[in-house]
Amino acid sequence: MDKSVLLNNFETRGWVPVGPDDDWNFYWANVQSIRNVFSIDCGFRLTDDQVISHFPNHVELTRKDLMVKNIKRYRKDLDKEGNPLAEKDENGRYIHLDFIPQTFMLPADYNLFVEEFRKNPNTTWIMKPCGKARGVGIFLVNKLSQLKKWSRDSKTSNFTPPTSKDTYVISKYIDNPLLIGGKKFDLRLYVLVTSFRPLKCYLFRLGFARFCTVKYNASINELDNMFVHLTNVSIQKQGDDYNNVHGGKWTVQNLRLFLEGTRGKEVTDRLFDEMQWQIVHSLKAVAGGISNDRHCFECYGYDIIIDDNLKPWLIEVNASPSLTSTTSSDRIMKYKLINDVINIVIPPGQVPDVRWNKIPAKEHLGNFDVLYDEELAQQDVMGGDPRKLGPGTFRGKRDGSRPSPATWK
Amino acid sequence: MGDSNYSKAYIQTLIDELKTSKIYTDLQCAAQVEIAKPTLRLSELKKGVLNGLVNSGWDRKLRNAIYRFLQTHPKLQFPSPPPEHLKEPLVFLRKAQQAWEKRILKSLNSMCTDLNIPLARKRPEKEQKEWAQKWTELGIDGPDADFGWEACQGCAYLSQFRPVYAPKDFLEVIIGLQNPNYHGSDTPGFYHLWGIVQVPLKVKDIDELRLQYSDMSINQCQSGIDDAQDIPSELFEQERVKLGKKVINTNHGPLAQEFSKKGCPTSMRATLWCQILAVELDEIDILYYEQLKTNVLQHDLLVDSLLYKDVKLTATNDDQYFVFEDFLYQVLLPFSRDTYVLNHFDYNSASPPKSYIRGRLGMDEFAVNYPPNGVIPFHGFAMYVAPMCFLYKETITLYYVFREMYVRYFFRLHSISSHPQGIVGLSLLFESLLQTHESDLFFHLKSVGCQPLKVAFKWLVRAFSGYLSSDQVLLLWDRVLAYNSLEILAVLAVAIFSFRKTNLMKVQSYNAAEAVLADLTTLQVIPLIQLSLFSK
Fold it and tell me: Does the keyword NAD apply (chain B) (predicted)?
């Protein structure tokens, strides 16, 4: 992995790189090493002056099947307690919490999937391997015959706990994506989480849209052409039309300008608002299950697709969003990202101390905005501020107040 | 109509034009509908019909049609000047423009001969069908596309196409302009122009500009600054949006224009521009565009390859506009076949180039305009369209808005004329403002070998498209439309030099100066213009 963005940031701060056996204060780990750090056999306790860039069981959010499971459970829980957020419409679909496309696990839910597929045989579904990233191993399905392998598996003797190599999720493919200039795109947003209980998350303003280089074509013949359907840069980079100047990426600001100009301000504001809510809900859904080690922080890459009704859909969350840069503006943006992350996680000029209150000062937020800080929200409730409501009804809190910039920890 | 501003002849021309346009027949039909209404009393026939028409919005439509005419037809003087004078009153500039055109056409013809491609050819049936299918995807190219420019032209020589000219070539021509009646010299007593433009045209000074752009003064809230995210919306944005909605509902061109002087809120810009430019699409316009599209499908022009190459060189490499590549083809290709554009040559100093049917060189009865719209594109031409892609998601509206913008404003940026908003006038305005108000900067740059216009020229020719970030270009073009003048481009150019003065004073070479001014994407244009115009 190209580490130049990280190294530049460390060097600017005068940090000293250390070897694998030395003491350290700041560890930007990859997903393998994080398992070592927290493993039951060979892991070690972190001291108060050490911070690390992943939560131990982040997979609850970042593995596709676990994320779906957690969100489904979260919705059911809200429904049970009668929370207004869990309100459903006349078809039984959630009104506020319908933000992931319909998903089934394979091979476990194969039969449920078949039942759903038979109800609407003309739909397309997308198969994604649970343990992989960057668009590897994904394919589209519109006939049951394409899933022969899993139908066999589900009928054979069960109770082989699925390893991440064999399990897939199959989701309803969004076949009416919003097209701009006739091209399909998805949105990559960066979210920093410094704590899950209380939830503290920050949204990076400089997200971007990734465009497919080939015109979007919903026809069945193009199902095999991954250039049309997948927006992952690692796939698009191999296409003939990939451009090294802009890399097929558009800033979120340009997206906003376009949507406001062509669709109007209210619907655009609503779209962005809804996306922020989806992120908060997804984090709340896993907050109970993630081990809230205070040495940890994590920078997630959220992938969102917008359909042509301007409804956003959460596709997946990445624990190790790519830090390699394809263009120079990309490199600058990722540099800023890491810079702001570090400033939020460790107040500038200080040695990390995990006992601090994790409320970053406004000037350290950089390009981040506070998305949701549960602790501060609760304090406001205690302070009797009538405009802000408690964590049970976030919607009320966020109406009318503009988010103040978040800080990187 | 006792308006002394407009001569009887002008009013008559207006009436004649209205009578031949669609609105006349529409009005007659509407009047007939009114007459047939049972509520109408015979004794008050005229009044009743007039009221009925006003109530159903015809009054507004007629006003908009008149407004559109006024915008595009400059007032005639008396005695009425000969047509060449309407194009360009000064003989030496007319000659210069003609010489420039000859050069361009020669260059085009020689490219044609070198590459052995005809200026125009009819497409074979099969090719026409392919183009029809791929009309919305013309940007696709590459070895596995069975369709593409290269495939159609038969071989991969697209790389051998060169743009016919670039802004810097045009600048060389302008620098060389000399009024033969005028003798500038270094001896005292003779007025000598400081910059590189040596044509002594009359340009506005800062006081006149302050008056003209008074609605942009610092004490007036502007869209683009005062409606930013971090400012509470009650201060300006809410009122502005409310007012904007009212303006849009009245659908009255001059009102929209007046409102836009303080900038357009992003979500209203598309509609406001349509109202100011009097672009209202009806079935005839849709059919006309389809006809142009059919022309593209049936015939292939050399100019198409130039446009294709231009888009690939400019917009496709721009990280703001690459998304709209296909839209650009869908606008530019029909544009080059649109003979409506020929009308603007009445008041443009340029003339459409002529070409001859094969074998009939020099014979006037076989002369045709080439390309059909008379406009030969240059390097960067596609950037005139690109910013508007942020406003219109249907290509047909985009097409008509662009066409209007071109025949009203953009054509002035690449033809030699004495018009104060022509590129020569704008260049001179830029130089004189900079020299008067930042004389130390001007002198310093001159002494290190960097004439300021050499850097600013490309900004002016492209109306800053591709140099500023897209939202800023749109804010700037709001003002071009609202004040009906391109002079703001020169004002902005001066403001940018002022803004970067500290760094510019330190440079010691032309390249260093260019480097300081290379990246304008972080600039906010409205505060810069305000500072430059109103805070001296």
Answer: no
Cα gap B490→B464, rounded to integer Å: 10
Answer whether B195's CB lies under 8 Å from B435's CB. yes
Question: Closest to A262 (Cβ–Cβ): which among B270, B320, B474?
Answer: B270
Peptide bond into B79 cis (omega under 30): yes
> Which of A10-24, A374-388, B502-516 comes out lowest in average pLDDT?
A374-388
Q: Do A261 and B269 touch (CB under 8 A)?
A: yes
Question: In this predicted model, which residue has the larger pLDDT, A89 or B417?
Answer: B417
Among chain A residues, CA nearest to B145: A240
Map residue A403 onto helix, strand or coil: coil
Query: Average pLDDT for residues A121-144, to the nearest whole number?
Result: 79
B162 contact partners, CB below 8 Å, separation of at least 6:
B111
CB B341 within 8 A of CB B375: yes
Residue in the structure block whose two tokens are 């800053």 = B464
Q: For residue range B292-341, list pLDDT tens digits in order.
A: 999 999 988 888 888 988 898 898 888 899 999 999 999 999 999 999 99
Six-digit token pair at B258?
A: 């007046």
Mean pLDDT of A212-239: 60
Q: Percentage of chain B surpassing pLDDT 70?
A: 90
How far is residue A54's CA from residue B370's CA, in Å, rounded to a whole number? 65
Residue B39 in tokens: 């509520």
The answer to whether A105 and A65 have CB atoms below 8 angstroms apart is yes
Q: How far apart are CA A1 and CA B314, in angstroms?
A: 32
Kindly list the residues from chain B whose CB atom is less than 8 angstroms away from the CB atom of residue A260. Answer: 266-267
Beta-sheet strands, E only, within A249-297: 249-251
Of A181, A240, A263, which has the smallest distance from its Cβ to B323's Cβ?
A: A181
CA distance B188 to B199: 19
Residue in A229, A237, A190 with CA at minimum distance from that of residue A337: A190
| Number of residues in chain B | 536
Residue B28 buriedness (CB in 10 A; 0-12 / 13-18 / 19+): exposed
pLDDT tens, position by position, A31-56: 777 777 777 776 677 788 888 888 88
What would the DSSP string read from start to end of B168-188? HHHHHHHHT---TT----SST
Residues of B in contact with A402 (CB under 8 A): 229-230
Mutate to test the interface with B, among A185, A265, A325, A336 (most CBs of B within 10 A): A265
Residue with the two structure tokens 């016919």: B164
pLDDT, residue B145, reads 40
Give the single-character DSSP code of A113.
Answer: H
Q: Do B390 and A257 touch (CB under 8 A)?
A: yes
Contact yes or no for A250 and B323 at CB 8 A: yes
Q: How far apart are CA B214 and CA B210, in angstroms?
A: 6
User: What is each CA distance from B241 to A264, B257, B259, B266, B476, in whole angstroms?
Assistant: 12, 15, 11, 10, 19
Strands, E, within A307-361: which ranges? 312-318
Contacts of B230 in chain A (CB under 8 A): 402
The ipTM of this complex is 0.86
Beta strands in A102-150 (DSSP E): 103-106, 125-129, 139-141
Q: Which residues are CB-contacts of B497 (< 8 A; sequence separation ≥ 6)? A: B434, B438, B441, B452, B456, B504, B517
End-to-end CA distance of chain A: 23
Residue A141 contacts residue A121 (beta carbons within 8 Å): no
- How far, in Å, are A49, A251, A275, B16 from residue A306 at the CA level? 41, 15, 9, 51
Q: Please tell me the distance in Å from A28's CA to the nearest CA on chain B.
A: 31
Q: What is the nearest CA distance from A261 to chain B, expressed in angstroms?
A: 5
What b/e string do you get for A369-379 counting C-beta neighbours within 10 Å, with b at 16 or more? bbbbbbbebee
Phi-psi map region of B434: left, alpha, beta (phi>0 left; psi -120 to 50 alpha): alpha
- Closest-CA residue of A relative to B137 is A215
